[in-house]
Amino acid sequence: MNTRGPIRAAVARRTAGRAARVRAAGVTLLELLIVLSIMGLVAAFVVPLLGPGMSTAELKSAARQVAAGLRLARSEAVATRLDTRLVLDLEQRTMHVDRDPRVLALPRDVELKLYTAQNDLVSEKSGAVRFYPDGGSNGGRITLASGERKYDVDVDWLTGRVKILD
After folding, report:
1. By the 8 A CB rule, do 107 and 82 touch?
2. This prediction's pTM
3. Quick one: 54 exposed, middle or buried, by C-beta within 10 A (0-12, 13-18, 19+)?
4. What is the pLDDT of residues 93-148, one digit of tens each?
5. How far is CA 59 from CA 10, 52, 115, in A?
6. How far apart are CA 105 and CA 63, in angstroms?
């Protein structure tokens, strides 16, 4: 009796079923082209809405630059045992630390807001965050924004700790 015939037929049926399933799981070239053209149309409408603003990386970089200036002012106050301020000019988009001749420029596209003690407001367009010899501060917040994105650079009044908030 020859049993090889039915076994071969069963194997052939299993192989044919697998091949049909593999073909059904694939994506045709036409489907791929339709999806790509829809993505292209969506991108054509969305990109102009973003407008000419700062990138998130540039805005984060400006926030880090402000935080570094604040930390420099704090370390200067502790090292020299004198009150030290970081003066921020909102109109010119510049900042500098007392007794440091360097003036650092911030990007023109960034929108700045300064929240600090009333006696450290130099004018409507200029103000400062003050650090004390013990490392403490008068506290404050500098907000950097571009469109809907913004970063807050906070200064804790008690410890003088500087941190960037998203």
Report:
1. no
2. 0.69
3. buried
4. 999 999 899 999 999 889 999 999 998 888 889 999 999 999 999 999 999 998 88
5. 66, 13, 19
6. 12
